[in-house]
Amino acid sequence: MTLALLGMYSSIRYNHGKRVTVMYAGLLFVSCGSMAFHATLKYTTQLLDELPMLYLCAIALYSLVEIDKDVKYGLKLPAIIAMFQTAITLIYLFWIQHPAFHQTSFGLTALGTIIYAHKRLIQINPCNATQRTLSRAHLFGHMGMWGGFLIWNIDNIFCHQLRSYRSYLGFPFDGLLQLHGWWHILTAYGSTNCLLYVHMIRLAWHKQDQLFGVHYYMGLFPYISTVQPKKID
After folding, report:
1. What is the pTM of this model?
2. Please, which pLDDT band fits residue 99 given cuts at 50, 70 and 90?
3. pLDDT, position 92
4. Alpha carbon distances (Å) from 121 to 11, 35, 72, 110, 227
5. 228: confidence class by pLDDT, cuts 50, 70, 90
6. In angstroms, what CA-CA distances link 231 with 213, 215, 228?
7. Could you tell me if 1 and 32 are in contact, meaning their C-beta atoms sit under 8 angstroms apart?
8. How far is CA 140 from CA 4, 200, 219, in A?
9. Which of 26, 58, 159, 203 could bond to 209 as cystine, CB 3.0-4.6 Å?
10. Position 229 pLDDT exceeds 70
């Protein structure tokens, strides 16, 4: 939630557009849904944990396609994206209630976002400083998402063994083997860096990238803020 709120604050403060603000609001929606599910462990709140991930990815894709200040495709593009996401939601709710369907749908939406982000990256031809910022966000995004996915699968496969190890270690060291918790931390960090990547591409498109950079609140939480001018002796 902290990562999402920092992104929303940055976008609103520096007037980076409603599309960027809504993108971070989508991340906040995901975190609230995940918190609700783990607090109740009910199927309805599980959907609030899973489905917003799709919607967030769709918002990021829309932000990349409609990158100009003036909307190019009008209501056609959001209508198409909304219909696609609604179809996935209804199928998942009433027909194919299997995690593999959700994962595949999310993967396809994410793939479209990645492809379009790469297309925009080629079009903007960023300066060296922006390229370094984008490369870090890209690397940390993939490390967080794929690392979290790997840990999540390890936790599912070796659940009983990990439980016995945690019992042996005891408090507080047993928390180090709470891999499901690490999955949430890594994917939160990874998804935030993915949004920072999209955010910086939009700034570079509008020739504002050299005015902003990624900063870290408390040394941990990344967000975009103005670049401090270097002192000249």
Report:
1. 0.90
2. confident
3. 93
4. 20, 34, 19, 16, 21
5. low
6. 17, 18, 9
7. yes
8. 16, 14, 15
9. 203
10. no
User: What count of other Cβ atoms lies within 10 Å of the Cβ of residue 222?
Assistant: 19
> Is 2 in a helix, a strand, or coil?
helix
CA distances from 156 to 36, 85, 122, 164, 171 (A): 21, 28, 39, 14, 22
Which residues, at least 6 apart from 102, have a Cβ–Cβ distance to it below 8 Å?
50, 51, 54, 92
DSSP-assigned beta bridge partners for residue 224: 214
Asked if 117 and 67 touch (Cβ cutoff 8 Å), the reply is no
| Number of residues written out for the chain | 233
CA distance from start to end of the chain: 41
- Alpha-carbon gap, residue 141 to 145, rounded angstroms: 6
pLDDT bracket for residue 232 (50, 70, 90): very low
Closest C-alpha to 130, from 225, 64, 214:
214
Encode 4-25: b = buried (16+ Cβ within 10 Å), e = exposed. Answer: bbbbbebbeebebbebbbbbbb
C-alpha–C-alpha distance, residues 112 and 110, integer Å:
5
